[in-house]
Specification:
4-stranded antiparallel beta sheet, alpha/beta
Length: 584
Amino acid sequence: MLIDFREEVESALAGALDSLDLPGEDLGIETPPEDVSAILASSVAFRLAGIAEQPPPAVAEDIAAAIDATDLTYVGSVDTQGPYVNFHPAEAYYEETLDAAQSASYGHRPEKGESVVVEHTSANPTGPVHVGRARNPILGDAIARIMDLAGYDVDTHYYVNDAGRQIAVFTWAYETFEESELPEPERDSPEYEMVRYYRRGNTFLEEGPEDEVEAAEAEIQAIMQGLERGEKTAYERVGEVVDTVLAGMQRCLERLPATFEEFVKETRFIKDGSTESVATRLQESGLAYEDEGAWHLDLSDRGFEKDLVFMRSDGTSLYTTRDLAHHEWKFENYDRAVTVLGEDHKLQARQLQAALDVLGNDPTQLTDVIYSYVNLPTGKMSTRAGTGVDLDDLLDEAVDRAREAVESRLGDRIRDDELTESDVARIAEQVGIGAVRYDIVSKQPSKPITFKWDDALDFEGQSAPYVQYAHARTCGIVDEAAGTVEPTPNASLLQTAAERDLLKRIAAFPARIEESAQDLEPHTIATYARELADAVNVFYRECPVLGEGVDPDRSAARLALVVAARNTLANALSALGIAAPESM
């Protein structure tokens, strides 16, 4: 309803300014502070004071007087507060919100007819997913979910680096070392078994005998050259390693959950000739030059001090060259592309967009979401030596801690249903994984995160368990009412401050989805979900839904409000990729 309300405010303001012969390019519509009862306000009087030759409060009064609220559907009244024009809801605003939110699909926006590919995670397939990179799949998956909810046609892709030096090293190591030379794997999973070869290979290249290292480097180079020449054998050798590791990584990512429509391998763009085509076009762009056999792209006219190397002296392409071909393929198949990248890729991402422009593409089709990394309280984590913390470890600990928290609260449960052992295990999984996701996705991407267990699993704070518990509470009320009270949407019977505040929060959900999808900022939905949970809990304390002392009609109306809150909470959690338990 907030979307319809805003459209009505925009139209009313534009009409009022036109009638006053004032310019209406910037309407200054904003959400007022919490202590203001209006749904929306306009600060346009500030901008027009000079033109109208009156102080802002006087301009605001003139604008409000020029709006006839009786002609409007969702705006019930208009008043001023100093220089602000305030817009208050009509009863229809509450009625239609309550009615619309009875649907389990509440918040889903109409199809926009615009296709979007969201590329995220894309971690090199060299071992287990690391905690420091966990923000990428969580952020990327939430962006994809929110954009889908907002009506975009969304595909999620994982771009697989299967042509770089690291993979060539991995392939050589896998074919060189024996199982007996390796330590026991940390877990019984393919990526943990395979990463031992990668680590052993890197150690050997750093510390092995010079002549043997030289021979190994020659073999690694041969693998890379074979890929570049399109040799079937080279692709098969590399593919065995990459596909085995990816299978294990997928299992871990599915726990988050983060899934993909397609795993796009970079060797695809070598095989089909598009990487070679990109290199040739860059060479012919007038901005390229050769230096000691390697090809560079001069991007100084686009503000870069560092040139972009796109072909090595040995004739092999670089990751960025293949990624340029990859992005041109995206542009051919999708209207928009979104890529989630760590802050260490910021320069590379900017150079990529500049090179796409040189190649004649429209770089505005591509939006990069850059994030800072996740730290544990002990400090920044590292990957290559195997000394860091794997995502599996974090998720296991999250579930274990969540189980302790859930079991400690069993004696305080209000619902009289009995939880079985499998129920407790399921809830612990939902709460534990949800806690990790929420704690990460609730922060602005550009801000670094230090993960803290006490905050993430706080049932009373800004956390997933807090929101999940509010959802479970609504489910408990609906279950208790089943067969005795039928939810009946009647907003005229919901007049208390707690009821109206909850309705206002629910009304804002579709607009928040639209805004979050437009800005690619999932943390705003996390904030919304917590605020909605706050409103649900206030309503729960102050407005009994069932019981002999509650008027039957009011009970039915309040139950409809609970259903609306349940649907909204469930969809807000789903947009973040977090489970919505029905019982806790």
